[in-house]
Amino acid sequence: MIEDSGVTWMVNRDQLNHDWLKNQYIVALGRFLNVVDGNESSQKYLDYFLNAILGQWEIQGPQFQKLINSFEQSLTPCRYFPCSGSSIESQAGIWLTEFAHQMWKIRWNVSSLVSQALAAWTAVNVAYQQVIDARAAGCTFARSAILRREEFQNLSDRCIALSDALGLFPHSQLSV
Fold first, then answer.
1. Pairwise CA distance, residues 29 & 57, whole Å
2. Model confidence over 67-125: pLDDT tens digits?
3. Which has the closest alpha carbon to 166: 124, 99, 130, 113?
4. Which of 41, 70, 120, 140 registers the highest number of CB atoms within 10 A of its CB?
């Protein structure tokens, strides 16, 4: 059986966006903010979040960029038009393949989906770096978490925006 790159892409998106970003990272950020706000008392969770969870973005973040950048190639209808050789039929197939791809991109606004998701991913990276830069502020990282709450809130907001942008991508195979 031949592996379908579109299905693989959607599975990867579900794992990154739903399983990790929404159900783990954003939830952990929310709990962290609750502790910082005093709505929950758990110094241990502050330390756990700062030492074990926060840095996971450095591992998972690049996977989001790869996912977004692979969308067009993975879900294009071109993958259903195998063409090889130099026959006239093959040449017509190349033209038809390119035409189908361009029609698909226009109909489903592929370029906009990709650029919005990449912008959201970049915003998460910027927000993450602002949080990390709190270490350079000259106070302990746990103390800077309380002093720099707005950076953590921004990181949470940017993560939610990235998740929303990924949610705009199709959840099934699209045709022209």
1. 12
2. 999 999 888 888 777 655 555 456 666 788 888 889 989 988 999 999 999 999 999 99
3. 113
4. 120
pTM: 0.85
- Token pair for 56: 């996971």
Structure tokens at 35: 């502790």
Looking at residue 101, its amino acid is H
Residue with the two structure tokens 């059986």:
1
Q: How far apart are CA 135 and CA 142, in angstroms?
A: 9
Which of the pair, 38 or 145, is modelled with greater confidence? 38
Which among 104, 72, 97 has a CA at the least distance from the CA of 83?
97
**Given a cut of 50, is residue 2 above it in pLDDT?**
no
Instruction: Return the structure tokens found at 59.
Output: 């591992």
DSSP line for 156-171: HHHHHHHHHHHHTS-S
